[in-house]
């Protein structure tokens, strides 16, 4: 109540300062006008005295007399019309009405729309307009003060964490995300958000701690896009570009056509070379290939590619299989076979618009747009 009383006094004082002149008769103009006329008359008299004493020449005296006379006439011609008592009465009535009415209108608007507890507020709307960053920081301070008094308010932590991250306060964002998990419970989204904040605090490096959070998010939801993207980024930063490309390719294959993060994943996949080597082999196959000669290893790989091609001719609905086949031919340096496989793949999935979209997207990432 004390805070609201202070606000009310400040409002009344501000309105009173603005409206006070409305309740007073305006006599200052008359006083100023009268003082100017007296000054100009004194100046004319002084010119006559200087001319009589021989201090100035007659032409100079005449020029000065003309200029001062012009100013005297102008000052005398601006005499204000005395304000009627009825106008003064109406202005005072308007001042009283504003003094009483404005606070009532403000309260009437605030009651249905305001919320002094600040438990929830439209961040998206408050970020718009001039002074966006400053307004956002002021809101953050208020929410932080609220959370200091109510540390178990999970909803408040959930709102605060992404805003702190947007402001670049990554360490504070990490703490807020941890509190959000504590008071809101486990979810793939919250784990992935926490991992992202940890990576941002490390200048974009997916640290072991961040990777653990993304793996937890993936365990909760294998299709979580943020977790899968950053797990691919972790693989790329570890030098496992093929693994990163495979993760991102699988992510794109399941992504909606209008997913806002598709361009980011596509550019990352292009950076990784689109998975510029053969698809990952099983552990048994890799162990067996270590003792092979280069020629035997090449024969084994070609055999695997031919078996994949045969399988796809029998069942052409496997988009990922077609993309692996095309990529294998490109790695082997046989672009003609890659183009032929692309044509066969498009023909095989021509009646399924979603599979055809995924196929064309994958071929585009491999550099085969046509």
Molecular structure report:
The chain has 370 residues and is an all-alpha fold. It contains 18 helices and no strands. This is C-type cytochrome biogenesis protein CcmI. It comes from Bradyrhizobium commune. Keywords: Cytochrome c-type biogenesis, Membrane, Transmembrane, Transmembrane helix. Its main location: other.
Q: Work out the strand percent.
A: under 5%
Structural class: mainly alpha
Helix count equals 18
Approximately how much helix is present in the residues? over 70%
* Count of β-strands: 0
Look at the structure and give the CATH class of the domain at 292-366: Mainly Alpha
Oligomer: single chain
CATH topology of the domain at 292-366: Serine Threonine Protein Phosphatase 5, Tetratricopeptide repeat
> Mind telling me which CATH architecture of the domain at 292-366 this is?
Alpha Horseshoe
Mean pLDDT: 76
Q: Which ranges are low-confidence, i.e. pLDDT below 50, for 5 or more consecutive residues?
A: 28-33, 123-127, 275-284
Series of secondary-structure elements, N-terminal to C-terminal: HHHHHHHHHHHHHHHHHH
What does the largest sheet look like?
none
Cα end-to-end separation: 72 Å
Principal-axis shape equals: elongated
> What is the CA-atom radius of gyration, in angstroms?
40 Å
């Amino acid at each position: 109540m004390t805070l609201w009383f202070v606000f009310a006094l400040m409002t009344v004082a501000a309105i009173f300062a603005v409206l006070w002149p409305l309740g007073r008769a305006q006599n200052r103009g008359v006083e100023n006008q009268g003082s100017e006329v007296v000054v100009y008359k004194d100046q004319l008299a002084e010119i006559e005295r200087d001319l009589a004493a021989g201090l100035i020449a007659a032409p100079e005296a005449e020029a000065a007399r003309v200029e001062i006379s012009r100013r005297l006439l102008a000052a005398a011609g601006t005499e204000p019309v005395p304000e009627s008592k009825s106008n003064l009465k109406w202005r005072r009535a308007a001042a009283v009405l504003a003094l009483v009415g404005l606070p009532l209108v403000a309260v009437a608007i605030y009651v249905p729309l305001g919320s002094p507890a600040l438990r929830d507020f439209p961040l998206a709307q408050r970020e718009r307009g001039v002074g966006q960053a400053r307004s956002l920081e002021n809101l953050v301070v208020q929410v932080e003060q609220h959370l200091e008094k109510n540390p178990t308010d999970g909803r408040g932590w959930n709102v605060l964490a992404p805003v702190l991250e947007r402001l670049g306060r990554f360490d504070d964002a990490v703490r807020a995300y941890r509190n959000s998990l504590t008071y809101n419970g486990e979810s793939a989204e919250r784990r992935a958000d926490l991992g992202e904040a940890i990576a941002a605090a490390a200048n974009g490096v997916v640290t072991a701690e961040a990777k653990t959070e993304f793996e937890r998010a993936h365990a909760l939801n294998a299709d979580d896009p943020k977790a899968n993207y950053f797990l691919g980024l972790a693989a790329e930063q570890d030098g496992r570009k093929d693994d990163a490309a495979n993760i991102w390719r699988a992510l794109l294959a399941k992504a909606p056509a209008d997913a806002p993060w598709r361009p980011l994943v596509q550019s990352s996949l292009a950076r990784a070379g689109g998975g510029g080597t053969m698809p990952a082999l099983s552990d048994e196959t890799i162990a067996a290939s270590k003792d092979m000669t280069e020629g035997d290893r090449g024969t084994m790989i070609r055999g695997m590619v031919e078996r994949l091609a045969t399988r796809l001719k029998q069942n052409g609905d496997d988009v990922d299989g077609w993309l692996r086949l095309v990529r294998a031919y490109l790695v082997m340096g046989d672009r003609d076979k890659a183009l032929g496989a692309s044509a066969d793949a498009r023909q095989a999935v021509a009646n399924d618009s979603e599979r055809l979209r995924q196929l064309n997207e994958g071929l585009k990432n491999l550099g085969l747009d046509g």
